[in-house]
Amino acid sequence: DAGVIQSPRHEVTEMGQEVTLRCKPISGHNSLFWYRQTMMRGLELLIYFNNNVPIDDSGMPEDRFSAKMPNASFSTLKIQPSEPRDSAVYFCASSSYTGFALHFGNGTRLTVT
Amino acid sequence: KQEVTQIPAALSVPEGENLVLNCSFTDSAIYNLQWFRQDPGKGLTSLLLIQSSQREQTSGRLNASLDKSSGRSTLYIAASQPGDSATYLCAVNNNNDMRFGAGTRLTVKP
Questions:
Q1: A100 close contact with B: CB closer than 8 A
Q2: Could you list the pLDDT tens digit for every one of the 113 residues in chain A?
Q3: Which of B64, B65, B76, B106 has the fewest C-beta atoms under 10 angstroms from its C-beta?
Q4: β strands within chain A, DSSP E
């Protein structure tokens, strides 16, 4: 299996622009998670889906952030408009079921100037 | 809200030493606890997963223990090697709400 695939690996954009991060979970996994990692705050859970349905989005910092999972093999995290404080590494992770191991992608490093 | 603490924040040891990393959590009603390794600029690699009904898990030179009642887990690394240098994170699962500690940055000197 190819593992969790995220794109792009790096994204540099200007403040105010829309940013879309993409994730393909491991085939057969039914839970998908979006995390953000910064030096100051560590790993923060933003949102997670079970069977393509958003379950908990309480970690989404502001209305500028939105996430979708239109099918079992694809999810997006969108930031519109982006701000410099959104600069971080964004990770996508998936698991086969509640209580099973979490598998991470390599992350997208976002820089907003 | 679950809070996860890892001590120490950083650790430096000579090659060959055995070492213990600590993780504590505030809410003992967990599904499982998972230990990860993160190399600089990389994603997280799963090392060990302990279900709430288990006391320990072993993989090679790694052994993780779980004491749910006291809210503690330890990761024991035997005969450490320079390749073990990385940041180690523990994550606690409360019904798919996975909370991470800040990690322990381990350096193993040749």
A1: yes
A2: 679 999 999 999 999 999 999 999 999 999 999 999 998 988 999 999 999 999 989 889 889 999 999 999 999 999 999 999 999 999 999 998 766 788 999 999 999 99
A3: B76
A4: 5-7, 10-13, 19-24, 31-38, 42-50, 53-56, 65-71, 74-79, 88-95, 103-104, 108-112
Q: What are the tokens at B81?
A: 């090697």
Q: Do B43 and A45 touch (CB under 8 A)?
A: no
Please list, residue by residue across A81-105, b when 16 or more beta carbons sit within 10 angstroms of its beta carbon and e when fewer do: ebeeebbbbbbbbbbeeebbbbbbb
Distance CA A76, CA B82 (A): 37
User: How far A63 CA sits from the closest chain B CA (Å)?
Assistant: 21
The closest alpha carbon to A100, from A33, A29, A34, A51, belongs to A29
Q: Is B53 on the interface with A (CB under 8 A)?
A: no
A31: helix, strand or coil: strand
CB-nearest partner of A99 from B32, B36, B97: B32
**Amino acid letter at B34?**
Q
* Residue owning tokens 């997670």: A48
Q: Give me the phi and psi of A84, to 5 degrees please.
A: -55, -35
Nearest to B110 by CA among B82, B79, B87, B84: B82
Residue B2 burial (C-beta neighbours within 10 Å; 0-12, 13-18, 19+): middle
A34 shares contact with chain B (CB less than 8 Å): no
Scanning the structure block, which residue is given the tokens 């030096």?
A39
